[in-house]
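1st attempt posting a full record on here, be nice pls
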Amino acid sequence: MKHPVLIPTLLMSAIFTTAAFAPDQTPASRNIAQASVQQSAVVEGADNFYKSDKVTMQKVTFKNQYNMKVAGNLFIPKTLNQNAKNPAIIVGHPMGAVKEQSANLYAQKLAEQGFVTLSLDLSFWGESEGQPRNVVSPDIYADDFSAAVDFLSTQSFVDRERIGVLGICGSRSFAISAAKIDPRLKAIATVSMYDMGAANRNGLRHSTTLEQRKKVIAEAAEQRYAEFTGGETKYTSGTVHELNENSTAIEREFYDFYRTPRGEYTPKGSSPKLTTHPTLTSNVKFMNFYPFNDIETISPRPMLFITGADAHSREFSEDAYKRAAEPKELHIVPNAGHVDLYDRVNLIPWDKLQSFFNQHLSR
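the predicted structure (as tokens):
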């Protein structure tokens, strides 16, 4: 079988790896994908796979409007009065990740504070349905959040008038997209937000030129011919699988979470080689994704934007905050980078999140 075909692209070149590739199941490629990888020193306070003894977890599924099954983990405080109506929070994982990466941690920590919480896998990822796997579909992603509201509203112990949402990294832009047309989401919080549309169109700090963008679009369009006629699916962006002396600081930051025991997780049916990587032909759909347009229409529902002071993604939280109408708050965490807020429990502002949802999901 052929070795992986590497096609240089400039898609999100300032963010992730820039290669488009086809999966290869040769022994050599499997060894590269699954071998013990270069690991950084243990990151202080990192606890992605935290398990709380104060909550119970139930695996649940529900349908979105596209009749696709969405999978989630429902966390219920052991002290919850299930004869009462309680506030609930939906938690979305980073783009390319699954609920076991960051979302479960946040969901459990918030459940410990008395909230019913639901972490979910976006369609095409993790345990949720959707073929082919790893497809990008912002409209369907947004509907997954509304479907989560549908599901929670049917639970006897949840108050359908007190449902909030917390999005991490890329999920935050999908949750905002949902909230603009779903007033049932009563309070909207973000952590380390990426505007996946702007990131793909412009790169970080508008580093991508129009010519580079057109090249990426042309490559994806050409690849559609190959796949339509039975060729191999190709994947793009995501997290690099190896580091070298030329690896960027951002590549190293994501690698330390997604490619080491700190946060690596391979869903059943996938492989380490494909985790975090969307399909090349679908990733260009982000070019037409503008989640911050009309963000002011979410008002008077409150919005909280949390970002690290040193986060390479800080520009997206600041942009959203500038565009949003009151009530809104921008909370900057000192000495924190983008991925730090995925799992570093000593840096994540739990008190800020708890007070925000307590205030805005109270009766």
